[in-house]
């Protein structure tokens, strides 16, 4: 079984949904995707049992309404769909990320790779942005120190 991650990128004020699935090569693992984005992006993992999970859809809608805020905070949103995970990704999700198999979880991972926020319910953008804007790295970014 191939693992599929869907990325919600914010570009030009329009939510652009991309499916990361390469036909010539297997898609990157969850751990490799997170590693590749370390020090580049803040990653918001949207974990759900299935792609049609109502809570997942609510979280996506909340985020889609705030494209500027997402872009300003260097956010990458990844759907992690339990029913589509490879065995290795499922093991990584349980052991490293502590994601429950049967329920929705949103997980904010900072640019340093650390888990900064976890919720079993959709996070309103203002709450998410408040968490990010308190981070030392984000404060430096806002001052222009990058």
Give your account of this protein's structure.
- The chain is α+β, with helices and mostly antiparallel strands and 146 residues long.
- The chain has a single domain (5-143), classed as 3-Layer(aba) Sandwich (Glutaredoxin), CATH 3.40.30.10.
- Helices cover 35% and strands 26% of the residues.
- The chain has six helices and six strands.
- The protein has helices at residues 30-37, 54-64, 67-72, 87-95, 125-133, 136-143, and strands spanning 5-11, 14-20, 42-48, 75-81, 105-109, 115-119.
- A six-stranded mixed beta sheet has the order 2-1-4-3-5-6, with helices on both faces.
- A hairpin with a 2-residue loop joins β1 and β2 (14-20).
- It is globular and about 40 Å long.
Features of the shown structure:
Glutaredoxin; DUF4174 domain-containing protein; 6-stranded mixed sheet; signal; alpha+beta; globular; about 150 residues; 6 strands; DUF4174
Brief overview:
With 146 residues, the chain is of the alpha+beta class. The chain has six helices and six strands, in the order E-E-H-E-H-H-E-H-E-E-H-H.
